[in-house]
Structures
1.
Amino acid sequence: MRALIQRVTQASVAIDGTTVGEIGPGLLILICAMTGDAADAPARMAAKIAKLRIFKDDAGKMNLSLLDTHRAALIVSQFTLAGDTSRGNRPGFSTAAPPEVGRAAYGTFIAEVAALGITTATGQFGADMAVSLTNDGPVTLWIDL
């Protein structure tokens, strides 16, 4: 499983001009299931992201997690995170999980994040989405499991 996370002051996702998910301060999580992911990958990824100490404490140091701050997560599926550009200019996506596997992993990941007590908003798997955000910091991290 692969994720790109961005600390945000706000983020939203729209489909056909209609907002389907939005958050205030928290994390925008772009998530991709990969071929060969272990069955527990969504749970492990959710736990890892929830505990990352990337929010500022009272001293201004990145020392607090999503769990510590009680902020929200906007979770958006994005198979293009599996893009491979090593053999030319057109990305290949053969390392992304097949759609039916990706859809299930996306749903499980959302459920795992919510089960940790984190307020979640989502996009829609497989939809053409417009994602808007205000990156805070900026803080952006790439995570592979």
Note: The CA atoms of residues 46 and 99 lie 20 Å apart.
2.
Amino acid sequence: MGRSDPGRVAPAGFLGTAAAIVLADQATKSLAVERLVPYHLNPVFGEWFRLTLLYNPGAAFGLHFGPWSRWIFMALTVVAVVTMWRFYRESATDARVRVWALCLVTGGALGNLFDRIQSERGVVDFLDVGVGAWRWPTFNIADIAVSTGAILLAIVLWREEEEERIAPTTDAPIGASGGAASSASDVGPTRA
């Protein structure tokens, strides 16, 4: 049995973290459906933070494809989850922040996928923040995980790209300027 790399997040850790996000998301959505009346405003911190039960048949920010939305978003979610798993498998062993970002996106995507599978009404949203008429679109725990993970992943990928751009290249052929081989003039005079 091979030893695992202590710096790498094991597949069980990746899947366990994603599953914990799904469980937290589904539990809070279940409570919202059980205790809130749809479209009724329930102030928590005045007008700034409210609980408002809504069902979103589309995607973030009201993106909608008509009667096919449910199936299109389910298919896109499956593709996204498979892609996140591939990114995880291809991640370097020391890329812990990248892996946690992938866990967040995967868990959040699965949480909203389960809503779409369970009901034609769409994803359960219930967190409502804003001031007066300036409101953020109502969201849920899965949305927080996806958004946080996506932002974190974008930062990590940008930093990786910057590091690759400024890192010295090691692909120079031997004998090229700055390479390992040296010419006779570099060594000094030779004896005949």
Note: The chain has one domain: 11-165.
3.
Amino acid sequence: MQTEAASLHGHRRERAYEHLRDDILAGRYRNGESLTEARICQDLGVSRTPVREAFCQLELDGLVRMIPNKGAVVTGFGTHDMDDMFQIRMMVEGIAVRRAAEAMTDSELELLEAALLEEEEMTRRGDTEALQRVDSRFHEILFRGSGSRVLQTLLSALHLHSRQARSLSLSSGTRARESLEEHRRILEALKRRDPVLAQQEMERHVGNAAANYHRSTQNGGNEG
């Protein structure tokens, strides 16, 4: 019984953590906003303990700051943080796609092409939410295709934490179409098994995403 109770508690804590993390990264909470413990408990149908434990994990992630008499306050990621993430992504994704050009199997290339076809359809429809999901899948297939678990783990975390930036970027119809063409060029380089070209195309893709993010935040007055 104790094991079952501990498992249930762990599940509730993880659910609270993932729910809050995803909402913060998606921009549903603004930087400086206090997280109301009682409301979160009510929304998730859990007690205060798993929510408080989730706050502790979020503080370790750098997404909230615990302030006496105020509780958990959202810190999120600012513009300088996003600059760091884009720079790291450019370097590490460049390495990953270079590896993938040499290591990807034909079946993985087919999965990548299928994701690209779906991305094309979602871009045509203007479905930003679905487009973000397929964009993530495209990159995840690439990370896996590098054959490196270290690169896959690192880049998956970076993509998770840059979710708000990618959502903001892809909500622009122009950028969505540009991103699609960039993905297409990356795929072609991979099919040609050209690691140098694949790396160049990926670095160009991440660089363009960073530039568009800065334009979007400046126009919207959002600090990211």
Note: The domain at 79-220 is CATH 1.20.120.530 (Four Helix Bundle (Hemerythrin (Met), subunit A)).
4.
Amino acid sequence: MKRADLEHILRAASAITNERDFIVIGSQAILGQFPNAPPELLISDEVDIYPRHRPDLADLIDGAIGELSFFHDEFGYYAQGVGPTTAVLPAGWEARLVPVTNENTHGAVGHCLELHDMLAAKYVAAREKDRHFCRSAVRRGLADEATLLRRIAELPVSEERKGALEKDVASDFAVARRGA
């Protein structure tokens, strides 16, 4: 995926829903903060998105430009309509959103998760693809360990879970420092 692909999805989602503000929460939210992110962070062909003020319209996005749609077949990428509870996010995440809007979005705004908020959510999700994404972002030097640990502390999960996540973060940074 490229930044232009994200912009295209924002434009299409806006046309489908008549909404202008969208939340982008998946891995491709990295394109907000890092338009030229390293290739290994851009392998997903989906954008997880929902209308900020009308999350109930996410199904329209899924149906029109979702997986296996004509849009997906035509362009090779698609939108996954999600909702506000799809990701477990740190307190204050909305104040740190990174907007994507320009002439290519035709007035639509994709409010992309800030990198550390997205990484915290990915550590919670703990799927192999999420762990790989986190390790790659750390190895590439995009994330700051102290900031990420603060975001982990702000997650709405148990203290026991936070402790396990902090160990995962520390391990990933230790491996990156060793150059492995």
Note: The radius of gyration is 16 Å.
